[in-house]
């Protein structure tokens, strides 16, 4: 049996990431796992009392004391959500090591983590903002260097009317659109490879059909096979993360609504708008959970709670309520 002093942390990190890859996380998620693991490992390796090259760090160096010290240093310049994410990544890493018999226990329960509140939804601001966005993007803007309104509108339609994440949009194939006319759906692979099916209405189906027709005209019918990526760039190549983010940002600018997009939620604001409108229209938490692919009912319930709070605030601001309050004071006096 290999001595634990000879088992290197870097090698174990690579084994963990390889195992996680079978769950089909997005490349962005895998990169985040790697960053979190390497950042803490580097802090442990840099321990001033006995510094080591990171490549030489053994598994035996991952003591509770070392992990506490490393996480304390890691936490100093970072937000609570980043610290919590790193803690969760290391917790998963040790769970993997215990399952493989490499570690006898998971020390992360002895390492403090911040309490991170459930983040509030960040939909587009303004009652008619989504409609204004779609209307503006549907028109060809010849000020653009390479206008392609059909594609841009298709991206926005799936984000606003199906609530898809950035990684889910990029993962779609032409064959992800399924079902007969009137019963159309999009088959999505969500976080951790979890599949879900989201119904799409005839209006969205028509937008997607117009986009695929425009793509055939641009690049030929062979580029629209079932296994082809659904969204492509102006060269016909698969659209990538940065390209999709730039596309959505340019749509906001064309519609003149950049001031109505919450900070830190550029494309995600479209998904949040979808979920918030579901809650406003009376969808249950379980329905929102299924449609958005949430892993926790708490996340879905949050849209309902926030919507109810906003509705109550709107009622409270009603001038008639204020008039009644004034009458009550007068009569009481």
TrEMBL record:
Keyword Transmembrane helix among UniProt keywords: no
Residue ranges of every copy of the Tyr recombinase domain listed in the record: 119-316
Family annotation (Pfam families): Phage_int_SAM_1 (PF02899), Phage_integrase (PF00589)
Residue ranges of domain Core-binding (CB) in the record: 7-98
InterPro entries for the chain: CB, DNA_brk_join_enz, Integrase-like_cat_sf, Integrase_catalytic, Integrase_recombinase_N, Integrase_SAM-like_N, Tyrosine_recombinase_XerCD
Keywords attached to this entry: DNA integration, DNA recombination, DNA-binding
Gene3D superfamilies, alphabetized: 1.10.150.130, Intergrase catalytic core
Similarity annotation: Belongs to the 'phage' integrase family.
Name of the molecule in the record: Tyrosine-type recombinase/integrase
Native source species: Micromonospora sonneratiae
